[in-house]
Amino acid sequence: MRLYSLLIISTLVVLGIADGDDDNKNYNVTNRPFPKGFKFGVATAAYQIEGAWNIDGKGPQMWDDFFHETPSRAFDGSNGDIAVDSYHLYKEDIRCMEEVGVDYYRLSLSWARILPDGTTDNINQLGVDYYIKVFEALEAKGIKTMVTIYHWDLPSALHSKGGWLNPDIINWFADYAELCYKLFGKYADSWITINEPKQICHGGYGIGAYAPGIVSNGIKDYICAKNVLLAHAKAWRIWDEKYRKVYGAKNTLVIDSDWYEPSTNSKEDAIASDTKLQFVHGMYGNPVVNGNWPDVMIKNVADLSRKQGFNESRLPAFTEEEQKLLKGRIQPIMLTLKITSCIIAGTYDFFALNHYTTYMVKARTQEILTVSWDDDSKVDIYQKSEDIWKPAAIDWFRIVPWGFGKLLRWMRKTYGNIEIVITENGVSDKTGILKDQTRIDFLRNYMSHMLDAIHEADVNVTAYTLWTIMDNFEWTLGYIGKSGLYYVNRTDPALPRIPKDSAKYYSKIIKTKCLIDDCLNE
Ligand SMILES: *[C@@H]1O[C@H](CO)[C@@H](O)[C@H](O)[C@H]1NC(C)=O
Ligand SMILES: *[C@@H]1O[C@H](CO)[C@@H](O)[C@H](O)[C@H]1NC(C)=O
Ligand SMILES: *[C@@H]1O[C@H](CO)[C@@H](O)[C@H](O)[C@H]1NC(C)=O
Ligand SMILES: *[C@@H]1O[C@H](CO)[C@@H](O)[C@H](O)[C@H]1NC(C)=O
């Protein structure tokens, strides 16, 4: 999960019972059950839970440096040195998962724990052993795994060589990913190459709110995006060509996207909504499906770059060879029992979506020539006032359940009938309150809109991953943003995990496959 927004953190609001959303007042939670075979999981990320930042041979990674150098980058001056100590307490985490009854656990691997200097020249066996222990403990409880290879924690040694701005990272990452396939292939039930490229690139190299804190909006974030996409594509193809037939698991990239609701029903605002979605989801979705940036991005960035006096577009082009790499394998298809043609399959096995909130969007009437990714979309975005949409732990996080359903329908329309797995969804508060009715309402309403999209619009969502199993280190929000089904008591050195009401609610949904007390039979 990502919760930056340093500027507005002073407006933190304590959660109450969600009550203010006019659009949701008359909304009846669906009485239809989840489809047969639908799976439920919980997600975490290495830096947010493991701690043990310098233990047993782990190397430093750029988020360690980011907070050690400037502690105030975290709202509470904290860092992930200890986090919730899952390096030692992973069995506790797994006990919680067993209690809730999840089908699978989405976790991430720490690159610098496995490869302290980032390269495969120097493998840290103790780091490898840690993950094998976690996988074996999960296997013993019958909990499947979804393994994220990269969730933002770039080894410092690679950051000092340019990190995501250096095209060599395509090979650094591919080597690391291949090592993960070899070491953990027999434990991973599905793979995620990279989590949330928008946050890595725009957060880390555009606005600089995230590690490594580089500010170059509309320039370096695009260079990062190109390298992230090619690193993903190369790692995905190594899986596809060499390891898929051995282990069988699916592999993909996680893309995070908000929903952008047109502010009026004018044609211009409908187009503005689609354009913004292309700059957010399409920027990463279109390359892995079709091998290139969305057309509207290519057109807008070229146009504004020219007007801004650049000699070429700030959006780096993909060469023909790079486009082929992104488009993935050529797959023979059988028609009437005869191989008759080939399709290009893209570098994904399913779409993985992280979703939290919704913005309003309207077409711009006046051109703005500021150099930034935000302005390249040529639209304005805003959120409605608090009395309409209830804010959660931080200001931008409005609870807008119907936005989730609309985003899923947009993906179905834009990309066709592709399997979708929700890899993150959830809500943070700053209390960690055990009677967390707001979280229950959030889950019930967001999942209801997801189910409506499944049943009414033929959107093929096959699994839902809740962020997160227990309160943990929430990046720049420190320990203040609490999103867990379990509260972690940080004043007790044992860091006990204590179930909130939402843990029982999620557990019940998993058992009954139903969001309310009694569902229709299907
Ligand atoms: C919700 O259910 C109530 C009672 O069954 C019904 O009167 C109302 O019209 C429903 N609202 C919507 C938006 O379907
Ligand atoms: C554009 O300018 C940059 C330096 O600002 C230079 O490196 C690059 O080669 C130029 N490109 C073209 C196509 O002239
Ligand atoms: C959804 O995707 C899965 C995995 O590709 C597939 O097995 C299933 O048939 C699809 N369901 C629908 C309704 O398209
Ligand atoms: C947290 O731990 C402290 C120290 O053990 C204890 O005094 C306190 O009651 C605990 N709080 C909760 C909510 O369990």
From TrEMBL:
Signal peptide interval: 1-18
UniProt EC number: 3.2.1.21
Top-rank taxon: Eukaryota
UniProt GO molecular function: beta-glucosidase activity
Biological process terms in GO annotation: carbohydrate metabolic process
Catalytic residues identified in the record: E424
InterPro entries xref list: GH, GH_1_N_CS, Glyco_hydro_1, Glyco_hydro_1_AS
Enzyme class: hydrolase
Keywords: Glycoprotein, Glycosidase, Hydrolase, Signal
Keyword Signal tagged: yes
Subunit record text: Homodimer.
Family of this protein: Belongs to the glycosyl hydrolase 1 family.
Name of the featured protein: beta-glucosidase
